[in-house]
Amino acid sequence: MKNDSISELLLEVRTKHPLVHNITNLVVTNIVANALLAIGASPVMAYANEEVGDVALASAAVALNMGTLDSRIVNAMEITAHAANEGQVPVVFDPVGAGFTPYRNEVATKMINKYDLAVIRGNTAEIGFLVGAGGTVKGVDAIGVGDSLLLRMVQYARIQHCVIVATGETDYVTDGRNLWSLRNGHSLLATITGSGCMLTGIIGAFVGVIERDASLLSIAHTCIAAITCYNVAGEIAAQTASGPGTFQVALFDALYHLSGDTVSDLAKVELVM
Ligand code: ATP
Ligand code: TZP
Ligand code: MG
Ligand code: MG
């Protein structure tokens, strides 16, 4: 993947202002909307069963996040995913806390098996659990990574026909054939809640500006662009932050002012296999 395509995709987000329908969690709703606005997208948070199908169909992409589940939200996620699939609107799924409780595992498995998901984005432990590679989930945080994660991720993406993103200090992206490692970001991202949830929304914004029938390779490139923009913004924010509080504020500013050229210069993307 060429670094200049990262800045082209960022420019597309800033000029098209894609509408991203988020069903996200109670902890992060506001910051996900603000992160999307800062990067140039247009967020809408909508949960009512009566309208989610219409909202999904009017959107450029849908981002579904399992952070604070209940049966009403699961129902809304199902109606949304069904409508999005019918309308060829790409769905990004964040299996927050998969591996932590049987309920989360059941919902994640159902969403993955029943609907076409363009991208599944979780931390390494959540993805490790889903792909059968182990890893330990403590609430919504990763504390251990299984050895076989990378190979199993690739196999799982091929079987499910989707792109899988596993984040952490190093992020991994696969389209089921290729595997990339991404080494941008900053440890302060792990000190604020919602850093993964904001990234999931931003991946939605980027996937929302490419063609609806894009190949998995092209969706994977788009995820790499989104993650690299976000993580370079994290690096820039860390330069002025004195801790998690100032870091979160600086992250919005960095997303807003982010230069495509800077991202291209600082990108650390490698094809692993
Ligand atoms: P968790 O629930 O464990 O916080 P998450 O869903 O928030 O997981 P993370 O894996 O923390 O997701 O990733 C969120 C973002 O933070 C990603 O962009 C990732 O690259 C970045 N990130 C997380 N930890 C680090 C780190 N130690 N160094 C650099 N970047 C990091
Ligand atoms: N509890 C349920 S959802 C949530 C918490 C703390 C936020 C998780 O956000 P992230 O981005 O996965 O760290
Ligand atoms: Mg986090
Ligand atoms: Mg998460």
From TrEMBL:
GO molecular function list: ATP binding; hydroxyethylthiazole kinase activity; magnesium ion binding
The enzyme's E.C. designation: 2.7.1.50
Entry binding sites for ATP: R121, T167
Catalysed reactions listed for this entry: 5-(2-hydroxyethyl)-4-methylthiazole + ATP = 4-methyl-5-(2-phosphooxyethyl)-thiazole + ADP + H(+)
Positions contributing to substrate binding: M45, G194
Pfam families for the chain: HK
InterPro entries xref list: Hyethyz_kinase, Ribokinase-like
Principal EC category: transferase
Keywords attached to this entry: ATP-binding, Kinase, Magnesium, Metal-binding, Nucleotide-binding, Thiamine biosynthesis, Transferase
GO biological process terms on file: thiamine biosynthetic process; thiamine diphosphate biosynthetic process
Known cofactor(s): Mg(2+)
Protein's pathway: Cofactor biosynthesis; thiamine diphosphate biosynthesis; 4-methyl-5-(2-phosphoethyl)-thiazole from 5-(2-hydroxyethyl)-4-methylthiazole: step 1/1
Family the entry assigns: Belongs to the Thz kinase family.
Functional note: Catalyzes the phosphorylation of the hydroxyl group of 4-methyl-5-beta-hydroxyethylthiazole (THZ).
Protein known as: Hydroxyethylthiazole kinase
Species per Swiss-Prot/TrEMBL record: Sulfoacidibacillus ferrooxidans
